[in-house]
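Re: Re: ligand-bound prediction request (bumping)

Still looking for help on this. To restate: I need the protein modeled with flavin-adenine dinucleotide bound, output as structure tokens. Inputs repeated here so nobody has to scroll up.
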Amino acid sequence: MTKRIVVIAEHFNGRLVPVTFELLACALEIQRFRQVPISVVILGDRVEDLAHEIAGASGLEVIAIQDPDLITYNGEIYKNILGEVLPELSPVCICIAHTGQGWDFAPGLAVRLGAACITGVERLFEEDGRICFTRAIFGGKLVADFRVASDPTIITVQPGSFKKASFEARTLGSVILRTVSYQSRQSRSLGIKRAKEESSAVTEADVVVSAGKGIGRKENLEIIERLAALFPKSAVAGSRSVCDSKWLDRNRQVGLTGASVNPRLYIAAGISGASQHIAGMRSSGFIVAINTDPNAAIFNVSDVCVVEDLTAFIPVFIEACEKSNA
Amino acid sequence: MKILICVKQVPESDAAIKMDDCARWIRPEKSISYKMNRFDEFAVEESVLIKEAFPGTRVDAISVGPARAAMVVKRAIGMGADNGVHVETGDHGYLNPLIVASLIAGYARDRQYNLILTGIMSEDAMHGMVGPMLAELLSLPCATSVIFEKISPETETIRVEREIKGGYRDTLELKCPAVLTIQGGINKPRYPSLSNMLRAKHQKLVTIVASPDDRPGPREEVMRVSYPQKSRSGMVLEGGREEKAARLLKILREKTLI
Ligand SMILES: Cc1cc2nc3c(=O)[nH]c(=O)nc-3n(C[C@H](O)[C@H](O)[C@H](O)COP(=O)(O)OP(=O)(O)OC[C@H]3O[C@@H](n4cnc5c(N)ncnc54)[C@H](O)[C@@H]3O)c2cc1C
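Reply:
Sorry for the wait, this slipped through. Here it is.
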């Protein structure tokens, strides 16, 4: 049977999400090392139109599997369907998004298929005739290269890591439609809920001063506030850990599951620089990081690195600033 | 009710970690201090909250790892878990998540847990795989990134909300027994109490020495670790504290940012 690279498309609220096209780009890169066809699989209650959209844009074969119970994503149904369909496709590699959906079903699916599983893949390359995958470890302080012993491999791909694929539309692509019915036995989806609409307090500011767990205790937020007060149109924000600890309100969280900001200046104080945090601030105009750890990941995305204890450094900086203004 | 809570020991986030000699993982150094994985603290707290809400509930904490990992099992007891289990593996550096999941599954299989909790991921390896793999190995339903849960003992179900992306939650109901991976922020983890820590100190953990035969062969392996590429200039300010402050001020002035 022909082996293939398989992409599992992701959609939400009736639309394809951008990472789907990044998965296609990832599959094209894999194809440079493993010359086998790419097939796309999309699951949902009504996904024929989305399947045509992918086929039209990519010229690839798209397998649309419709199940009336998949009104929203359900991990159990996904694993049941994919557990049956994928072996028929003899995949060498299965590309899934590293999102709240993909990350939910990929590891379990890997166990079911006897596949290797690598989550949060950011890059891939070939070495000694094998494909290797790079992912962040230790909150982004280091990266690790992984390789696998045998097919198939499931990877979940970090959104934003591959540039949206561009295809010269040579062929029109094709859609294979299948209808199945796998009721979930152990779980029941009850729908998607919008969390309380919280207007973000940090997206409008010119300068964002952001506190991480490195501030040590809640009382030290005062230092962060004093630093922010030096700048007009500034706001205090924080990492998820700081908001999880209830030191700051949730609407001040920057990152993947918080606000995306792009102020002129972003100051990260005591933030390690995990990829989920960086996802929300990497496009800031100028980035200054203050951290005691010279290897902190935040320094890799910073313009200026200050290796200092923030509780000691920030007061000195404030004083220098006030002196020069006097 | 019986709850199993899976905890992992990880280096402190400001630990000066270095690669080992063949750059295969980090060097286990005496100078590194370790702690309980932060996401696991939320999971332990959640299990203790359930225990408080449903009297008669028993919470067992389990950790797979080298001898030093016993410390986080003790900490879980300090936070309110009743018993501790340590699956001892020796200090190999990197432990493959399927191996960890298999070892936990081996322990949990015939012990009738109603609920198994893990953190959403570990802060060091960041795979987020042990929970969902464990569920699959035990043929249990699983929900990841759980930010809210409510148990209905009458129907033996659990309602959960999963955080799927900023602002959206996926709600679902699972049949118990089930596996949940807990996202940070679901609660406020308590500090271990003095009386519990004293109990933890004297309580014997169940220690299981993992033999290589218990483990499936790894399907993927780490080739090497390295420092990530920088995406910006990353100018490091030199000198004393005052000099650095003056330098930073000058740079921000030149860029008219202050
Ligand atoms: C699905 C998912 C979504 C997530 N979404 C987000 C998100 O939207 N936003 C987000 O921020 N995180 C998010 N996270 C969490 C993320 O992975 C990290 O855990 C988090 O960003 C770490 O926060 P931190 O940097 O404040 O804390 P830590 O990682 O604990 O870092 C603290 C830092 O402070 C430094 N430090 C310590 N003391 C001092 C001192 N005195 N002076 C200076 N520096 C000091 C340390 O060296 C360390 O680098 C998410 C995680 C998951 C799994």
